[in-house]
Amino acid sequence: MVNVIVVAGAGVSGLTSALLLSRSKANKVTVVAKHMPGDYDIEYASPWAGANVLPMASEENSRWERRTWPELKRLTEEVPEAGIHFQKARVYRRVKDAEAPGYHLSDYLFSTDPWYKSVLPDFRELSKEEVIPGHDSGCEFTSVCINTVVYLSWLVGQCLKNGVVFKRVVLTDIREAKSLSHTGQPANIIINATALGSLKLGGVEDTTMTPARAQIVLVRNEYHPMIATSGTDDSATEITYIMQRAAGGGTILGGTYDIGNWESAPDPNIAVRIMKRAVEAAPGLAGGKGIEGLSVIRHGVGLRPWRKDGVRIEEEVLDESTSIVHNYGHAGWGYQGSYGCAERVVELVNEIRKRKGEDLSGEDK
Length: 365
Ligand code: FAD
Prior knowledge:
Blueprint lengths: L2 E6 L3 H10 L5 E7 L29 H16 L5 E10 L1 H5 L24 E2 L11 E10 L1 H14 L3 E4 L20 E4 L16 E11 L6 E4 L8 E7 L6 E6 L1 E2 L8 H14 L14 E12 L4 E8 L2 E7 L9 H18 L10
Helix pairs in contact: 1-4, 1-6, 2-6
The structure holds flavin-adenine dinucleotide.
Flavin-adenine dinucleotide (FAD) binds next to helix 1, strand 8 and strand 13.
């Protein structure tokens, strides 16, 4: 039996879903999307990301991140062409941030007894001397940083190798995906990985979707370890992080986490504050020369696909012969949760296949 699957969306969520689904020969996968790797657009979050692994979920919701880490670790160790390298991460906490009303950014990352200490290697609390000025405590662990340009292209290549076909399409309604398979047959499964597009996409129109605006500065300066702080005195929507991408991808200085803000143009005042905070937290980043020592590649803004109740990964029956499997709303953790979420997409697709009487016992991996 053949499953005709159309994946809507070619960000990290759509591509990882397509990759895992294409590992089964019974699945004929087409990816349709308005934006593809190589594009930089305000409607396309994935290229703008750091992207590293700094767990953000509560322990209860940690499945996606917990299950993604082993695969990212394996890729880093065994698949250099995926464009991922190991980096130590240092997370600095201020007591006043934890006590601030409405503190929401990525609270669990800054927990003093985090669930991820048994998942990410080499976790340790920092000594007082290792904590940067203005902060009360901190921890260190081994993480990774992904060169998103290289990695997204690598995902496309892996999909192509498995027979996935890519098409540029702007959908006005998710139901249009049904007639877009390269096989010429109607799709029986549609994967909706349109992220923020799900707000306006006909047939989905999820009004709980809104952006968490991320302004960044990409610089040529190299710096490790990666850094993230629990808050800033500049604004409740501003944060500080530094992460050096693999394979010459530059170093991302962040940032902002501004829920409901659609502004696509970088704000020059915010840009200066981002750079100032970065060189304050890591003077070595600019050779001790302050922000004049930074070599800027670009200023950028990406919109994280934020959803009020968290990620949506579930089946919706469209008609007698077709189901939609949703995989959208990953906010600021789309990469670090990508394999966990795509694995759930495959589980849901397999449940649909079993319901239709398919025997999956000899399934190829
Ligand atoms: P997107 O990448 O936005 O892809 C959506 C896809 O759907 C696109 O192909 C788009 O064209 C398509 N689409 C939408 N509507 C339609 C339509 N109507 N018709 C056809 N196609 C459509 N995450 C991490 O894990 N670690 C990090 O360190 C990290 N850092 C970040 C830093 C920044 C500055 C930003 C902006 C984000 C960061 N994130 C990070 C978050 C991460 O980038 C997102 O969670 C992730 O990229 C979401 O991927 P996605 O595939 O769901 O959405």
